[in-house]
Write a structure and sequence with these properties.
- The protein has a six-stranded mixed β-sheet with strand order 2-1-6-5-4-3.
- It has two helices and six strands, in the order αββαββββ.
- With 147 residues, the protein is α+β, with helices and mostly antiparallel strands.
- The protein starts with a helix and ends in a 6-residue tail after the last strand.
- The protein is 24% helix and 50% strand.
């Protein structure tokens, strides 16, 4: 690949990974939890933790080891009160067909006085030109959330 082609591929990859992350948030915001699992590789994992932004200790709240398990966890939430996520501080690093991303999520739980804040750490994989979550880790900041 030429230097220009590599740079273009990296820019397009960064844009596609950002779109993946924003699409996830849009599905949650629009109460479309049943659509989320299609964003994961079949063997993609999703872990939800309770922790603090500046300490390594955490407690695992949920762990789902496949896109089907993500679907089985998310789909029943349709029609329930749900977060309206705002994604901030998105940083993406590309390495060929693999990417890592880090972002902060701040959300009001629609229809309630509750809020939640946390951090996503993602590993994404490009398969046949499309990006998917290979591993998604969400740490809910204990002292910044009321859920």
């Amino acid at each position: 690949m030429t230097d220009l082609a590599e740079r273009l591929d990296r820019l397009e990859a960064r844009n596609a990974v950002a779109e993946l992350i924003y699409t996830y948030a849009r599905h949650i915001r629009r109460d479309e939890p049943e659509q989320v699992s299609a964003l994961f590789l079949p063997e993609g994992t999703f872990e939800i933790r309770d922790g603090h932004p500046d300490q390594p200790e955490y407690t695992v709240r949920e762990f789902h080891k496949s896109a089907q398990e993500v679907h089985d966890y998310m789909a029943p939430a349709k029609g329930r009160r749900h977060p309206v996520p705002l994604i901030r501080n998105l940083i993406i690093e590309i390495d060929g067909d693999t990417a890592t991303a880090n972002s902060v999520m701040d959300a009001k739980i629609y229809g309630t006085p509750h809020t939640t804040m946390g951090e996503y750490r993602d590993v994404c994989q490009r398969v046949d030109g499309r990006w998917y979550f290979k591993a998604r880790l969400f740490t809910i900041y204990k002292d910044a959330s009321a859920v």
